[in-house]
Amino acid sequence: MNATLFLFGLGKVFFGIIVGAAGIFSASRLLGRMIRWGDTEAETKRGNLAAAVLEAAAVISFGVLVQHAVTATFTAMDLAYRGQAPHPAMIARFALYGLIHVGVSLTVGAFSLAIGAWIYGKLTRGVDEMAEVRKGNVGPALVLGAVLVVMALVTAPGLQMALEGLIPLPTLDRDEMVAPS
Q: Helices 24-34 and 49-80, interaxial angle, to 10°?
């Protein structure tokens, strides 16, 4: 049994739980303010299925975006500390870079999703999607939710590459790694 690998794995699970719970909740609130969708919790409590559908799509979208941030953080840190014994400074640096990655990811993600929703709103003149969602109309909520998920899927790879550039990685020999084209 490799105790170090096991402990680092548990640390990554804990980090993922924190990011999943706190990060996505915060980013969802930020996105809600950006696209002015009101109090989705109150809407959901009163039975507004459309608001719940849109909120679920936002959570899925942030999950897609944050998955790439977490993956980029773990990959970069694994590469940066390859072959080294764990020490407190390493853990502190890992936590710092992880928080920076997730913060950047959620902020950029919220802006990306808000821009996608805004562009979609401009393309559908005559339909105020958010007003329809507040009325409980599920159709516009499903379509706008799909727009959010697609925006997350198409922006996530670029976000992952940008995040990988934030960590000072060791210089590798040419045959060890080829930069993406």
A: 130
Distance in angstroms (rounded) separating the CA atoms of residues 117 and 145 = 9
pLDDT digits (tens, 9 = 90+) for 77-106: 777 677 777 778 877 877 787 778 778 888
Instruction: Give the mean pLDDT per block of 10 residues along the chain (181 residues).
Output: 79 80 73 71 83 86 82 75 75 78 82 88 87 89 92 89 72 59 47
Residues 141 and 133 sit within 8 Å (Cβ to Cβ): yes
State the Cα–Cα distance between residues 30 and 51, nearest whole angstrom: 16
Q: Read off the amino acid at residue 22.
A: A
Q: Name the packing angle between helices 49-80 and 138-164 (round to 10°).
A: 10
CB within 8 Å of 64: residues ≥ 6 apart:
149, 152, 153, 156
What are the sequence ranges of the domains in the chain? Answer: 3-164
* Alpha-helix runs per DSSP H in the chain: 3-18, 24-34, 40-45, 49-80, 88-123, 129-135, 138-164
